[in-house]
Amino acid sequence: MSDELAVRKHGMKSKSIKSIIRRKIDSWLETIEDKKLRDKVSKGVIITGGSIASMLLGEEVNDFDIYFRNHDTTLAVAHYYLGKFVSRKSNGIKAPLKVRDEDGRVKIVVQSAGVVSEEGTDKPYQYFEGQPDESAAAYVGDVLSDPAQIEDTYQEITELSEGTVDTKKGKETYRPVFMTTNAITLSGKIQLILRFYGEPDEIHENYDFSHCTNYWKSWDSELVLRPAALEALLSKELHYIGSKYPVCSLVRLRKFIERGWRVNAGQIVKMAMQVSQLDLTNFKVLEDQLIGVDTAYFVQLIERMKEKDPEKVDAAYLIEVIDRIF
Fold it and tell me: Residue 219: exposed, middle, or buried by beta-carbon count in 10 A (0-12, 13-18, 19+)?
């Protein structure tokens, strides 16, 4: 079966998906005021992950995950949007923020949970890491969607595939709404990933399931559909390809199963084998393993581990803390 036929069976052609992504990226690039940065970014954007999978399945896109081709672009983007975030007069930041570049890794450091106010709103905003775990999911869902500024993404997909989108209608603002160590979330359903960068194959070394490995490149507007990814999408069966973050993969299983995906026992055993090689009682190891999971759900666990004497952190202690938190 050809790639194009596989896509058609899911109700959306690759040509339509490329048009949607190109339009999304172009509308975002228009909002970058620094021309040198805009030119640099335009030549080095990679979109991969769940957004392409959702479009192939004809489902609503939650957000577009944007990766960058090199370290310099990633670092420049982090500085640019941190500056935008801090400079907003209404933000009233109460915790220091800075971009840290260590051993080739770019991350945003929040010294402590600060409180700011979003521009144009009267409700307080907390950094994502500072959100209480019981309210994090609802808060994120509320902040990501800005009905006064953006069209519903699913409707946009439908209209664009039918050629009926008015490109002058309601431009997105793409303002930074919150930041984590590893990513910057913009209004307009865009996530700028800082944790990883490089060519698509390098980025996918950190991915866990094959259906998320299709990708689009800004420098030639090419959409690459991998046969293994299309096969997984057609069957809606999770295939674990191995990851540096197997704990994250285990947590992500819940989301996919709730959406009707299947997973066989062999895939879970593969994850368990990789998890067994980790020392999760080591704070640094556990924190690193949870980077792909919503940090707000685990902030209490991480804080408890920081406060505890490392010599006294063992599996029994972690189990007790997890049970109390959840």
Answer: exposed
